[in-house]
Amino acid sequence: TATSTDTPTPTNSATSTATPTATDTLINTPTHTATATPSLTWTPTSTPTLTPTLSPTPVTVSVSAGPNPPANSSQLPGASNVEVEQVSLNNPSSTAVTLTGLTLSFPAAGNNGDVTGAALLSNGTTVATASFSGTTATFTFSEVLPPSSGATFTLTVNIGSGASGTYAFSVTGASGSNGQAVLFSGLPVTGATVTVAQATSTVTATPTFTTSSTATPTSTPSGKSSVVVYPNPSTGAPVSVLPPSYTGTADVKAQVFTTAFRKVQEQDHASMPYGPLTVRMEDDWGNPLADGLYYVVITVDGHRSIAKLLLLR
Hints:
Blueprint: E1 60-65, E2 73-75, E3 82-91, E4 97-105, E5 115-122, E6 125-130, E7 136-145, E8 149-159, E9 165-177, E10 183-185, E11 189-196, E12 202-209, E13 215-222, E14 228-230, E15 239-242, E16 249-258, E17 263-273, E18 277-279, E19 292-300, E20 303-311
Parallel strand pairs: 1-10, 2-11
Antiparallel strand pairs: 1-3, 3-8, 4-7, 4-9, 5-6, 5-8, 9-11, 12-13, 14-15, 15-18, 16-17, 16-19, 19-20
């Protein structure tokens, strides 16, 4: 039987000694680079929304004396429809203007009740009437002025029975609109000055013939028993005509004739209380009367009276 025996056999072996060797080692050091990332921030901004609003352009209406302004006149107490003012209003704009008011004034003279009322006329037609508050009367009406047009108004007043003095009239105010208040230029507009005085009796000589054909003049006062025309002669302004006296009311007709007996003017007044009439120096068609002598015929309830009127412009 074979037997195996391990027999150590010494063997020379070289021994290696490690020598440290520097070795470069790459160390990865991360570097952070800041990168700006935009951040959107919403800031609300208010944007107004414009809504157009229609605002008419202000209009200036010019006011001036009319083409035939009444002249200064002398009147009797109680005279009615005395023309004292004529004004023209012109709308130069491209929009229509509605006139709504006119104001007539006079400086204080005597009692404030001396002028009892007033009327506003357009083309001879009464547009409005007004009463005086102190020395001012305001007419309220509605008159449309189309674009680039004008209108003319005449103003008359009634004189109180106790009036006495001098009254200077003028238009001092106006109002209107074209969607907003209208402006007015040219105010005030001066009108006529009216002098009011009590009637005085005049004496006329009436010849009386006797059988011997000798004339004996007799004086007959003419007061309320006959027609009184004042002022006479007239310079073109309206005159006052006082009819023969009567009580209560009466139907009164006033006519003006030339010396050739051609009728140029006629007025009819129904149920008129006693007082003076205003007779204008123009015919029924609005034409001025020529200088000369005229007959004023007053008929009261069928009874006719005649007076002479001299016109000297």
